[in-house]
Amino acid sequence: MDQWLRNTNVVKVVALIIGILLWALVQMEDNTLPGTNGNGVREEQITNVAVTPKYDSARFHLASIEPAEVVVTLTGKESALRRALNASNYAVVLDLTDVEKGERIVPLTPVGFPSDVTVQISPPSAKVIVDEKSNKQMPVTINVTGIPDVGLKAGQPVVKPNKVTVTVPSAMIDAVESVRADVNVEKAQSAVSTTARLVAYDKDGKPLDTATINHPVVEVEVPITSPFTTVPLQLKLLGEPPPGLSVASLVQNTDKITVYGPQDVLNRMEYYEGPSINLAELTEEKEYTITLDVPPQDKVTQLDPEQVEVKINIVPSVTKTLEQIPLSIIGQNDGFNTEVVLPETGRLNLVVEGAPALLEKAKAQDTQAILDVSNLPPGRHVIPVTWNLPTFIKKAAQQDFTATVEISARP
């Protein structure tokens, strides 16, 4: 045996025999596998392979791809097929990088398969509809849901950012009606601060699934307060400046006030009575700036603002006579006739005092001379005249008026 192995010709013959046996063994293995042909090549099918589009998603929207899935047939030897099937990065690509808006048929391309495998795609192409995208700037709307704790009310939400850009296919740009998010304040006792996801809606209130929003999440704060209402703020003016001085102007820094409190109290509130100002204390010719606290009323929990600033300009007075002011009777009994006996004309002249600019506009028809005959019996009565004058116009000194009326029963 050792002599044979030392013989090179014998070794060559043995090696040749071993090679022939190995070749025959491989041939037998390939020919016994299902799907193989005489050359040891077989086929394998992969179904439901998704079509992967390649396009500029910032500019375009794919309205449809038909078909969305295809069948891939692989042909090759067992080892090559095994590598192909075990690969994780293969794909069927729909290359739209050079395609513009419209409908067209585009061939499908296999990507990521081994080079020693033949790839066949069925169908070999896909029909695609490409649409351009458009942008639309929209305000953010917050829909507050739920009811806060007893006696409290949700205020106006504050949202950041308050405007966003919505991107949709150009064919749908007019369908974008609103962009909003829901914030729940159920049983809340204090301000609700949260983040909320935005959704774009169409005119029918349906979400637009194809829309993208540049800031899809926003910060929201919903104030939780007592119920409130905003009403006129009315100052209470007392007295009048001393003789020789008059009010030329009175300006409040705010003429409205927000009042917080129980809803039944607010429902009855037509105005809010503010602080009092005694004009008799303004004894100098100048402009006064007065800051006053607004007084709280019963059951009112909060006021905004809590103070009011008032500027009052006091100037020297001038006088003017308002002539032929008719006497007006109030408080008459329906069962009696009431007539003015004196003055016979039923009219009076009155000297009034005020700031020059205001007095220039004052007219007799802006003034009322009033006789109150309430609860008076039949007969003649001398009654003092009371005056209803324009704002900041006052009666000049040394003028006390009376009138005589006669009350008689109706026949």
TrEMBL record:
Transmembrane segments: none annotated. InterPro entries: c-di-AMP_regulator, YbbR. Gene3D superfamilies: 2.170.120.30, YbbR-like domain (2.170.120.40). This is YbbR-like domain-containing protein. It comes from Paenibacillus xerothermodurans.
